[in-house]
Amino acid sequence: MTHVAQQVRRADVCAVAIADCFRGDGEILANPIGNLPVLGGRLARALHEPRLVMTDGEAHLAGEVHPLGAAPEVVEGWNPYRRMFDVLWNGRRHVMMGASQIDRYGNQNIAAIGPDPDRPARQLIGFRGAPGNTINNPTSYWVPNHGTRVFVEKVDLVCGIGYDRAAELGEVARFHDLRQVITNLAVLDFETPDHRMRLRSVHPGVTVEEVVAATGFELAIPDEVPQTRLPTPDELAAIERLDPGGLRLREVKD
């Protein structure tokens, strides 16, 4: 790593990579789930996507870009749980979820680990909104610990559907749109002819070989894999303002 890269923490690189996921979205509801995704979503709204609509994490639409852990001082509207479905079914949302398991086509599992879903070895949070999210809205994923236990050949239970299953569903899945997978090691996407997961970039200090070793299936790898871009000074200043307690650093350590 260069001297400049050493001054930037891995969590900061992840935050701007997440913010870039929402670049070009315009006036839709950004629905990132988790500290680093929320930080990245707010960073996007603060610096390059001012028309993004974001919640306060509960039942209000925030009228300002407020720090993690704080309530917004300005509220634009009320957004109770039942109203979220109106947004979801109209496709006016880009959600970023987590993934306990994910395969090469983007099939995601957050419900249970083990071969028998009726008697799982590990019970997780359940299907939640994953099926509806992936059918109706642009969807991205955040994985803070890139490893072979998460990136698997076959998920134990499909919650969010991947490109192979979306193709089988045909017109039912016409709004299916998996965008990117951001991890603590790399940025991945599905921009291949068969929508197989591709290595888009590696974070500073990470090699292609390290990402391959941490992935339990064969990735599509371009001839040239760039480094994930570093935050600009303005982005670093905004990150410090939006995460004064350093919550991002508990999730991704250098």
From TrEMBL:
Signal peptide interval: none
GO molecular function, one term: CoA-transferase activity
Keywords tagged on the record: Transferase
Residue ranges of the TM segments: none
Keyword Transferase among record annotations: yes
Similarity field: Belongs to the 3-oxoacid CoA-transferase subunit B family.
Protein name: Acyl CoA:acetate/3-ketoacid CoA transferase, beta subunit
Source organism (scientific name): Thermomonospora echinospora
